[in-house]
Amino acid sequence: METRLDRYEGARAAKIAELRELIEKSKKIVFLGGAGVSTESGIPDFRSGDGIYNQESGLNYRPVDIISHSFFVEHPEEFYDFYRRKLLYPDAKPNKAHKALVRLERQGKLMAIITQNIDKLHQDAGSKCTIELHGSVFRNHCMECGKKFKLDYILATEGVPHCDRCGGMIRPDITLYEENLEHDKVDAAIKALKKCDLLIIGGTSLTVYPAATFSQFIKHNNMVIINKSSTYLDLSAMLTIHDSIGDVLDSAIPKRKKRSDAGKKRKKTTTKKTTAKKTTSKKPGTDKK
Known about the structure:
CATH superfamily of the domain at 1-43 and 92-134 and 180-257: TPP-binding domain
Mean pLDDT: 87
Helix content: 25-40%
CATH topology of the domain at 1-43 and 92-134 and 180-257: Rossmann fold
CATH architecture of the domain at 1-43 and 92-134 and 180-257: 3-Layer(aba) Sandwich
Strand order of the largest sheet: 3-2-1-7-8-9
Low-confidence stretches: 259-263, 279-289
Number of helices: 10
Largest sheet: 6 strands, parallel
Strand content: 5-15%
Distance between the termini: 89 Å
Number of strands: 9
Shape: elongated
Structural class: alpha/beta
């Protein structure tokens, strides 16, 4: 939902201009993103009206229960049935939000992307500084011998996938409900937050912990929230924009400037003159007497 201010003519443009100015002044930016960053790539989020939690699971269980540790252990067949149908989008492509963050990183301003997503789209877009809090569906391992498997192996199997070396059950390297996040990822995220001079939170309702509390680690008030719906931190943020994360970031983060047409013409003219000069010049001693 949008705020009343967002409905006024020119309000959106003014907010994007303010965000652009904040980005320009900052040198150590951290982006904290959630499922809303990937919805524009065709991957559904969890809690919206069309989100995974509000869809039929196709099973006699709620989606929120299926993606828990205890359910995975007790009902692996049903887990993988739901997992393949609802959580895997191998053909999804990065959208404008992912690409804009790559530009910001290449400008030397973005320290880290802290993502709650498991789709690897930030890396596919070209980001190098991504911290995957909840893991990735593209990484899998055998629970017995530890052998690693790519997503293609999971997609090529039916039912519960088993290791081709020892026969053990394979599980995705993602954090399920009832499981703790990996300590090294949390530590890396907190370390980046403590060093940043601007925190941009985007595409998340800030209801999943501990990511929902990460703002407490910044040492300033420079926080921007970009999300279609409201969050509990909206009133604490320096700037709140209720809009498409892709459109906002694409507008606020400048693209690489292309050479102007006038510049191209000047270069073309110079090239022609240089070529003509080389053609008409004569080597010493070649004049006929």
